[in-house]
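request received
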Amino acid sequence: MIEAHLAKLRKRDDISAEEEQAVRALVADVQDVPADKVFIKQDKPLEVSTLLLDGIVCRYKDLKDGRRQIAQLHVAGDFVDLHSFTLKRLDHNLLTLTDCRIGLVPHERLRDMTERFPHLTRVYWLMSNIDAAMSREWELSLGRRDAAAKVAHLFCEMYIRLGVVGLCDGNTCPFPLIQTEIAECVGLTPVHVNRTLQEMRRQGLVELKAKRLVIPDFQRLKDVAEFNPNYLYLEKRPR
Amino acid sequence: MIEAHLAKLRKRDDISAEEEQAVRALVADVQDVPADKVFIKQDKPLEVSTLLLDGIVCRYKDLKDGRRQIAQLHVAGDFVDLHSFTLKRLDHNLLTLTDCRIGLVPHERLRDMTERFPHLTRVYWLMSNIDAAMSREWELSLGRRDAAAKVAHLFCEMYIRLGVVGLCDGNTCPFPLIQTEIAECVGLTPVHVNRTLQEMRRQGLVELKAKRLVIPDFQRLKDVAEFNPNYLYLEKRPR
DNA sequence: CGGTTGTTTGATAGGCCTCAAAGTCAGTGG
DNA sequence: CCACTGACTTTGAGGCCTATCAAACAACCG
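response:
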């Protein structure tokens, strides 16, 4: 399952055999986490990072009154809290949205990597930066896109990202989020997401059932969302 | 002026004399940029990063119809596009909001740093990660805070960040953004920002004139914003 | 087949937007 | 010193998009 992670890295730069070895050696332990579990809490000191091997995880923050904002979604192959290596604690929670399998990576080993593998360090730094680029794109969505574009953009992003790690099947991909969770991603209420989805279905933009997303015409969905994958940096370059 | 940058780093970790030398040696050139200039354009290949020595810069993205979202603000001492070192191009524009002085840092030198100074590399990686943490907090603002809390939160953040680099004066700090720019930060229209500001002034939460922000009672402003500075990671720890 | 979780519907309300025009102010030039 | 200008702020009226609250419906499950 770490193959997804390597695929993701190799989409952006060459990874030598020796580096691949080093990557594989990062994972000290593999664990299963059931769906709907907050497995890392905001502000708690951390000494281990989490590599997502399978499932969907989200980062979220919330306000006192309970309103919740999902800041990012993660799919298999994502290093969901690589940033805790330098931050030492997180400013958000990590929650499984499905049953997940995770790999635990002691910060010790990451530190060692930074001492011995400068290039690999740059690649992981790059991964953090791509994460940040996604947050910026979400800021644009949250601040300026209307409801339909918000939802459409989320679908486009997930379809592409799941494709990178080989989880798409034709014009279809897994999409296990419930409407409330979609709402928490795009800054709407569940009721409004429901109505937006109905309208999108009516227009034939998407189908969403049985936890799968079907996109009959990706170009049309992209147009609605003003989706441009540039911010995902899906290009191989020496770093 | 690079002192602001060093102060910012030292707020988070110790920087040795040798490392300080290395940091100072990063800057190849210093330039002045007038206000209101897009000095880095989205998607353009880059080989130099920009350190902000003085002034205010923003990162923004926009939609076809011209709606603009500012994704982040930068103050003196910020490495405004450190991430271009690994990304090789940016997914956003960089715009000066005031007259600025910038330091140019060839990626070549950053690369060299990653080969020779693993600890300094971790510190800069940390800085990227703090940037990303700010984006997440903005996502929460954009998605879930109401108008007054959005504006209040922006003020709190800027007041703290300007304080870190020594630009606050008592309960006052520079705040050169016009209302339209505030609106572009928080995802509102200029008109609504105007009304929100009036209400905040009426309640004695802030004064804003002559490009300065006055905060009579920071605690009260924090309460309105639900501001918690944890996400800025203002703590010194070995990284 | 109840119980639970998630989706859908309806009615109403409100926060923020839109568009347009007027007001303020600092800077400029005669 | 005072019109003039351009940039920014403020005001007004009306409307729309999304929120709110409540209840009904559907689907899954042991």
